[in-house]
Every structure is written in structure tokens, then in C-alpha cells.
Specification:
Length: about 250
Amino acid sequence: MKRIFFMSLLCMALVLIIGSTAVIGAKPVLKVGTSADFPPFEFQDEKTGAYLGFDVDLIQAVGAAADMEVQIVNTAWDGLIPGLLTGNYDCIVSAMTITDERLKAVAFSDPYFSAGQVIVTRANDTSIQTVEDLEGKKISVQIGTTGDLAASDIQGATVKRFNLAPDAIQEVRNGSVPACIIDLAVAAEIAKEYDDIKFGEPFTMEYYGIAIRKNNTDLIKKINRALASVKASGEYDKIYANWFGAN
Ligand code: ARG
């Protein structure tokens, strides 16, 4: 009887030990919200549906440096911050500009990319060069972006807001509006595909950051540490060169 008792105790101990090693072996998951409509930062492979882009590679590297497994959660752009606050994911990586308004709701990592807004017009349009030239005109933007903010500030302009960034650019191509305001690298990427549009010099200075809930101070520290190590190791430069050419 005693033997059976000790044997079963031993078995239970074994199950406990094996069970907890499995837990220790599994990496914690970092759930990342993104709006995959913004090439070359985040987009989906047309055939496989895989998430690709500069931001995707960067967060994979950051996740690896923090010893976490990255899981992408594709979410409509204007629902990203509400979804973060609800807890649908742990952070947002979506070419998101660090703004004072957003800082009221969320925290941001250290900046990881410098960007700016540009005006996209039809290639044969010579009437629009500067923001002043947009006064009283129709302008397409992605809803709730810094492009939307910039357009909304222009005297007498009518702002047409789209859920998806590429749709705002298509609006210029199909002749419905003379101009779209959008992030430089995205304009450049989409203009590669179509020779009927062009874009000007950036007229804002912005920095992208990784958004995290303000009370998640552990993760803010972890991500900043991981981001710094990805920069220091030269991995950041590799990812940058891969998407944008040499720095
Ligand atoms: N940088 C701009 C902003 O923060 C646009 C970002 C849009 N990102 C996206 N994945 N659609 O407002």
C-alpha cells in the first residue's frame, strides 16, 4: 500500500516538473495591432496573406530581442487605439506618428522612423505645389491620420476621408479630387506602380513610435530596451536597407 502511495506521489511530481518546463519553454506572446494597408510599412502578401513590411520586420526583431513571440492582429486604422485600450493587443506598430493628441491616450516607445506628409497629385497637374495651393480644394486622406489633420487645417478645403490609405490615393487617380495628403514613403511606394501620379516634398516633420498602454510600464521599458539593441546591433539598418535602400 505504502509503495503504491509513494509511486503515485512520484508520478504527480513528474507531471508537475514536466508541465512547468513546458510553460517555461514557451515564449510569452507579444500581440501587435496594425492596419495592414500602408505599404511599405505594413501590408499583406496578395497570394499568401502574410504580413509584410518595414514595421513587420522591425517588430519581429524587437520581439526576438525581448524574447517574445510576435502575433499580428490586423485592425482597421481608426480602431487601432481603441483596440489597444480595450486590450485586444499589447502594442501598435502601424507607421503611427507620435502626436500630442495621441499621447493623451497612450504611451509611445522611443521614435523609430522619421517621416512627413506630402501632397499627391496627378502627374500632369502643375497648379498644386504647396499647401497654400490646396486652399478651397478637395483633398482625400485616410481618416484620423496626420494627413487628415493637415488637410483639415487648410482654409476652405473639403476633406474626403477613407478607411483605407490606398483608396485615398486612388481618388486622385480617378479624378474625383485633385490631391491626397499622405506619408512620404507610402506615396513613393504607390507612385512606383502608377505613372499617372506624382508627389512633392514633405511639409511636416513626424516620428513613428510603437504605441503601448500607459499603465503597461513593464512593456514600455522592455520594448525600448529591445528597440535600442536592434539599433545597436545593426539589425535596424539591415531592415531599413531592405525596404528603402542604403541609409
Ligand atoms: N503616420 C500617419 C499617422 O500616424 C499615418 C499612419 C497610417 N498607418 C496605417 N497603417 N494606415 O496618422
